[in-house]
């Protein structure tokens, strides 16, 4: 599982010496850390890289983001300890824990712990306005659809969703940036995005060309929510300049994760920093508006890291011992 690293290092020189995190015993903390994200052009990379820098700058430990194949690969890399931290979606997390990851069939990835809620991943479809495609039912027979990096949340679920809705397509994988470029160049017909909003690749497309951001009908949303571990979601019209009205789609929750062996005190300080500074997280990415402690109960898959659970329990968000690793 080779990945491409983009390390954005930050050092303790930016830290006020009065920080309570600096005063505690850090003898068992790693000297640096890495966060597994996904491909460039997607929300995971923007969110994860910004969060890694935020943690590094405030806790005085060098760290950064790593480009990966997304949630499924992050589960594997964090489970093995190749990465200390990562980002994942609840569907791929469940499959990985149950031993159903295509990256390591039969391996139950049970050394991955939740640390905090991130945001919901909407599943949305984008096509060029010039294509004339304004609904899922209008996607032509045999259309080439980009589903994101192989093994990503989109690639794992969106093809099955399209098949369930009766769409006949040719499958294409790649980074969100690459697929956006292929869509603009007419090399593919549709991109089926699964990423937090606003998706950088969609925002970039809007600047360069006219696009249709396609909603699901009431019936389509009903069919998909009954068949997959998702819920209905509304993309506000204000999210993209191409949207004139709110857009109904479906979504799946994302959580930040840690290898369960990362020191409790380190994960406690990271959780505290993140959950108590939502304004700073919002400055990293607008999707972080839901990265708030009240959404801790959206995790019904992963065990909680003891350090994260300690912060939540101290602040009135009850996590029972049975849910803590």
TrEMBL record:
CDD domains from the UniProt entry: PBP2_TAXI_TRAP_like_2 (cd13570)
Signal peptide from the UniProt entry: 1-23
The alphabetical list of record keywords is: Signal
Question: Which protein are we looking at?
Answer: TAXI family TRAP transporter solute-binding subunit
Which superkingdom? Answer: Bacteria
